[in-house]
User: Fold Phenylalanine--tRNA ligase alpha subunit from Chitinophaga terrae.
Amino acid sequence: MEQLVQQIAAYKDEIAAFTPAGAADLEQYRIKFLGTKGIVKALFGEMKQVPNDRKKEFGQILNEFKQLAEAKYEQFSELKDNASASDSHIDYTLPAEPHRLGTRHPISQVRNKIIRIFERLGFTIAEGPEIEDDWHNFTALNLPENHPARDMQDTFFISKNPDWLLRTQTSSAQVRVMEAGKLPIRIISPGRVYRNETISARAHCFFHQVEGLYIDENVSFADLKQTLYHFVKEMFGENTGIRFRPSYFPFTEPSAEMDIVCFICGGTGCNVCKQTGWVEILGCGMVHPKVLANCGIDPEKYTGFAFGMGIERITMLKYQIKDLRLFSENDVRFLEQFEGTI
Assistant:
């Protein structure tokens, strides 16, 4: 106990000599002596070490010390009050800080607009996994093993035997819907896809697609053309130049590609349109009978059409963006340009 009394005497001398220079010094004093882990609380915790016959005596000493520490703090309380008044002073006549609005990514904006256009035509949304098996990504779509059309897509494989891969097209989601067997089918399947391509102004190792599928009795190529004509006019305007040209896809027969006049160069030729004045925006065709049969649909009774487009390509044309890489570089200066398009 004698040692504790000597400590208290030393603390009293320290308190007597203390004169704070400001509110910060006073706060440090409060923490040191009166805080929850301060000296006063610690000394009261030592009471259990004091012999029972001297607890009353030591208690009186502790109470006097506590009152001394508190009195010193209250002596300079005006420093604390002045600091609080200064902190709480707000000039309500000042203008408010501007509230910065975020922007939706241009890919998201165009994706949403594509969805809205096709929803008005009765299409619903179907989504699927980005990690796919070989059947849904290739074989069911009339691309059996060693089919030369597989070379058109340089694929990221996760494992072999069995084959698991990052999907190269959202057609895999269409296969899953067809396998469910609920006819008729009228869906679009938006999502991200992956291909091992050299990154450039026109290509990337990942991009976004929207693919469409319509299966019912007596669906014709004329239905396909009118659907896509409507889409282009809604997306780009009534006077957009359009052309169809024959093409090849293993999952459609007959197949075609749809081009529009390049908005970036106005048809005069640039790096985006490869100096042709036309830009391919989608591939399409009538669903191949083997694809229908692979998915358990009778090709003698049902027909259908399918189409697929890259959202980046549509966005580049709509907003006249010349480099596809801008979409994934997260440059705020680029993204802020689309604030007014929300």
Remarks:
- Residues 106-341 form a domain with the BirA Bifunctional Protein; domain 2 fold (CATH 3.30.930.10).
- The CA atoms of residues 257 and 283 lie 4 Å apart.
